[in-house]
Every structure is written in structure tokens, then in C-alpha cells.
Design a protein that fits this description.
The chain is an alpha+beta fold and about 180 residues long. The chain is about 20% helix and about 25% strand. The protein has a five-stranded antiparallel β-sheet. The protein has a two-stranded antiparallel sheet with strand order 6-7.
Length: about 180
């Protein structure tokens, strides 16, 4: 039998240095490792807080971390690399918690849409029902001409800064 090691893509922070400077020990997002952790976290929230999406990351240890929406992803992650990042909202249905919406919208990490399996595994581990993929996918690309980061809209792989064609494959790790 051949053992195949799973190697998940790790995304390092690519956003502004001044936001990474906000990272403080103990200031990262709430680690949710189990259904009990999730239950404790969600029971402390107000209805107003639950009405907005939350910032999330799946850290390098596969742990889901949650923070208020206006939190920076790099702060939520404690400055480390992540397996995915974005925004997520929750609701209850028939007494069960579920993800209402999830996106990979994080301009600090720019995770590829292929990062969903890390999110799915983290949600499955804590017993929160989830969709089969991101409900809103964000496609990030780095322009090979001007080096700026782009969000691709409507399959238009053209740099909004210089008009050059963008690559079809995820390339954010290329030096900026």
C-alpha cells in the first residue's frame, strides 16, 4: 500500500504591512475546535452580532478561527499562514446550526477557491452543517506586468490597473 501525503495549500499574508503590525499575542480570532467550542462562542453573541457575517480563517493547524466581521484576517490568524480565509454567516434551522453563506473574500491572504476543502473539514469537525462550496467565490490574480493584485469579475481576466491579461491559474505567491 502506498501512502500519499495530503499537502494542503498554505496562504501567507500578502496585504499591507501596517495591518500585519496589528497582530498581538492573544488577539487572534476565537479558536473553534469542537461543537462545544462553537456552542459556547455562539451563545455569547447577540442577535445583532449574528446578523452580520464573521471574519474566518482556517489556520495552519486546521482550526477554524472566528472574529467580528470588521476584523483583519491576519489578526484573526495571529499573523500566520492559513489554509483558507474569508467571511461566513450562520443561522439555525430546526435547532441545528448551519453556514448560511461563506466566501473566500480576504484581500490579505487572497486564497484560491480551491481552499474550500479545508473550510469544509473544519466545519464538519465542529458539527456545523455547510454548503458544498463557497456560496460566493472570489477569484484573485496577480498581474504579471504591473504586479498588482486583482479580483477577477465575470470571468474577465484582465488587469484593472494596466489592462494586461491575467493568468487563469492562481498566482498570488509570485513576488509583488
Amino acid at each position: 500500500m502506498v501512502h500519499v501525503e495530503s499537502r494542503e495549500q498554505r496562504y501567507r499574508y500578502v496585504g499591507p504591512a501596517e495591518l500585519k503590525a496589528l497582530v498581538r499575542t492573544g488577539g487572534e480570532g476565537r479558536s473553534i475546535r469542537s461543537s462545544a467550542d462553537f456552542g459556547e462562542w455562539v451563545s455569547a453573541l447577540t442577535l445583532d452580532e449574528l446578523a452580520e457575517p464573521f471574519t474566518f480563517v482556517v489556520d495552519g493547524g486546521t482550526v477554524l478561527r472566528l472574529a467580528p466581521r470588521r476584523s483583519e484576517h491576519v489578526v484573526c490568524a495571529g499573523g500566520g499562514a492559513v489554509l483558507s480565509a474569508g467571511e461566513m454567516s450562520f443561522r439555525t434551522e430546526s435547532g441545528r446550526w448551519m453556514v448560511e453563506a461563506a466566501s473566500n473574500q480576504s484581500t490579505g491572504y487572497c486564497p484560491d477557491v480551491s481552499s474550500w476543502p479545508a473550510v469544509a473539514a473544519a466545519l464538519d469537525r465542529i458539527g456545523v452543517h455547510r454548503p458544498s462550496g463557497f456560496t460566493h467565490e472570489v477569484v484573485f490574480r496577480r498581474c504579471r506586468s504591473c504586479r498588482d493584485l486583482n479580483i477577477v469579475r465575470e470571468e474577465d481576466f484582465v488587469c484593472v490597473f494596466c489592462g494586461e491579461d491575467l493568468p487563469r491559474e492562481w498566482n498570488i505567491r509570485e513576488p509583488g
